Structure formats: C-alpha cells, structure tokens
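>> received
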Amino acid sequence: MTLSVPSARAVDLRVERVDDVLERVERSLHVHLDRNSLVRKRRSIGARTQRDTWVRIERRSLARVGRQGWDGIECAEALRGITKPAWHAGVAWRDAEDAVMWRADETALLPGEPIGSSVVAVAPELSDVWWETLSASLDALAEQRTNRIATPDTESVTQELVIETIRGVFPDSFDMTVKHWRPAHADVNWANMTAPEFCLFDWEDWGMAPRGLDAASLWGASLAVPALAERVRAERRHDFESREGKLMTLFVCAKILGPYAHPEDPRLEPARSMAERLVKDLQAG
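>> returned
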C-alpha cells in the first residue's frame, strides 16, 4: 500500500508574513537576524546575523523532502577541495499547521557578491584565477562519495527523469542510458557564485547526478552571451565531450525549449542549434 503525503499550501515567501519563523530561528540558533539585510525568494529567506554569519531559511513541502532528507548544506560540510562557505549550525522543524518542513542553516558570509541573476544577459568580468577555481572545485566534487541524490528544483535526478525530460522535447530514438554518475551541486548558475573571488554556495540540493550536469547547467545559464557560453564549454571540455555530458546538455536544452519556454528568451535559438547537433551525435553512437 502506498501512503499519500498531504498537500502543502502554496506559499510565496517574498510576500508571506514570516515574523514568527524568524523569531524561532533566532531562538534556536542563538542569533539576531538583521531585518535590513533580508533577502526574500519564493521558497527561501536569507539574512545576516550579529556575529557576521549568514542564515538561510527554507520552506519545503513534505512531499519534496524525500527519502534523503534535505540537509544538503549541512552534509556539504564534509566535502573537501571545494571553495564554498563553511557551515556552522542548523535547525529543522515540522510546521504545526501545514504539510511542510522548515530548515535554517547558518554559514560563513560569502567572500563577495553573487555574480548576477541565475541567467545572465551581460558577460561578467571574471579572472583566469576565478575560472581555475571553479574548475578545481567541480573536479574535486566529482571525486567525492555520497549516497545523496541530486534534487535540482527539488526533483530527484533519476534515469527516468532524464529520459522523460529529453523525450518530451526530442522524441528521436537513441540510447539515453546514463552509465557515469558523479556528485553534483545541481544548481550551478550565476546567482549561486560570487566574484571577484570565486565561491559556490546554496548546497541544499547536491548529490549524485549524471556526469556533466553542473557544466551543462552553467552553459545553459550563459547562452544569452555566446562568448560566455563558449568559455564555459572550453573550461569544462572534458565533461561536455563525454557521452553523459552530451546527454546533460540536451537535458538542459530540453528545459529551455520545453512547454514553458518564453518566445523572447534569447537562449532559444542557440539551444535549438546545439540540440540538433547533439541528437545527431547521440544517434551516431
């Protein structure tokens, strides 16, 4: 028998009253949150504390917590060789009135400002050292060991998801079996990295994924700036040239070109062009 999980009320934390949540976090973590520094997103809130740390608070439905839990930021503290904020403490609780969980994680402050929105329209100024640190961090991540499953957009990356996403846009027949799985951040984009000093943050969804997911995700977030997208491909060439890297690039293209595509998205044409090449490559074996 399959047990159903109750549905959670749809909430946008950008407009929801959260005073009681902030106060609970302050009591639990023994911090004072600077209300003037609040950064509010649809399902998370962040704020600076009086001891020069950062607290990220997330609301997630029980159905999306999954079997591995959702302690990604805490678990990422065990990772080595990766430039990321240090984790200090965390607290989680079940909402008394809704089918959701809340979690707060206290981490070190970022060494710089986030580069931009998740998808950029103007190329950021990044040094060669920045690119080298990005690649070193992704290479180190790929060598780690974990039982976690990556959950970008809170959805577990499985073989079935890869096939469903790609075939939903590209029904062509070719083998989509993923043979090489690696630990991935699962949300590498321009809003989750800092400059001029590189730092990769927001580790709540990291876990095992097909090789090349992170590289393909960053490439997709760069497509509106062709030179930037090419730099991403050049820096992570060994990922993109692998069979899984091609599948993950097609996976990202399918998300860009799928049913929710905006007709004025500047990424549409380059994604379509790349997808045509990849389908031919994958069909050829």
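>> The radius of gyration is 19 Å.
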